[in-house]
Amino acid sequence: MKAVQFHEVGGPEVLQYGEIEQPVPAAGQVRLRVAASAYNAADNGMRAGFLPIPIELPHVPGYDVSGTVDAIGDGVTGVSVGDAVIAFLPMERDGGAAEFVIAPAEAVVAAPTGMPLADAAALPSVALTAWQALFDDGHLRSGQRLLVIGAGGVVGKYAVQLAKRAGAHVIATASPRSADAVRAAGADQVIDHTDTDVLGALDGQVDVLLNLAAIDPEQFAADVAAVRDGGVVVSTTAFMATPGDESRGVRAATVFVLPNRERLAELVALVDAGALTVEVTRRIPLAELPALHAEGAAGRIAGKVIVLP
Fold first, then answer.
1. What is the pTM of this model?
2. Do residues 43 and 28 touch, judged by C-beta distance below 8 A?
3. Cβ contacts of 303 within 8 Å, gap of 6 or more
4. Which of the residue ranges 62-66, 229-233, 300-304 would you say has the lowest mean pLDDT?
5. Tell me, what's the pLDDT at 240?
6. In Å, what is the CA distance from 218 to each residue of 158, 215, 224, 241, 243?
7. Residue 93, Cβ neighbours under 10 Å: how many?
8. What angle do CA 259, 221, 297 make, to 5 degrees?
9. How far apart, in Å, are the Cα atoms of 2 and each of 20, 287, 293?
10. Which range (148-152, 192-196, 254-258, 288-292) has the least confidence?
């Protein structure tokens, strides 16, 4: 089968497109005929060797995947050959940048029905990140105020949609390029962080601050002033510490997204109900994945890109 893999960590040039052996599902596993995988920044980090996830080499990237169940291992129930599914694969194992991939049976859920199966690969880990950040770590509730820094990115737009659905008042920072999309996602106020002092633009403190941007650590620490006493600061930027304020009871939490089959099924249900929009900005063939990694390493990727086998 065709796949992209790397035998050593390094720059995008270590990625190789070619033939590898088709995998066979073991007990408790299913094999998927891949419809698409999704590119994530963490794929770049694992390939470059600076993200501490214990992968085995050679490694196939692409831990977000959609596809059709092609074969089933022993002991698997509740899944049938031909089922259209999505999955957030274990990050340390081979991913979906291939024609076929092995998935733990407990990782797959039925794919959304109202959209192309390939595009559904854009949903799993990013939507789970937004949910975990808001509700598992941030404990966001109806009637609370939320500030999302960096809402124009993929996780940010999911976070805005989910927070509005939960009844929160959402304030979001975004550049002029993404401001309209953030408003369309449901933000009550959008602050242009490129020419506006964010703290000065607020009309009061917030209960939850969610940071999704690689901002200056000193600025991040200053932004904690926007959070009320007893509130929480949540961040997905694991490469720098999340600041809090113990003197005011402001808690700090850093998100490390975890697979959650039940939660992923809930997110699919929201998509099918029209309550959550899945955005795909580009679709590329598998052979072009090394070039996409080069774009990612240079910080030139905007929106969600899916990879078609």
1. 0.95
2. no
3. 154, 279, 280, 281, 282
4. 300-304
5. 87
6. 27, 8, 10, 11, 10
7. 15
8. 55
9. 6, 9, 18
10. 192-196
- What is the mean pLDDT of the segment spanning 198-205? 93
pLDDT of residue 125: 97
pLDDT band of residue 272 (cuts 50, 70, 90) is: very high
C-alpha 144 chain-centroid distance:
24
Token reading at 163: 């927070």
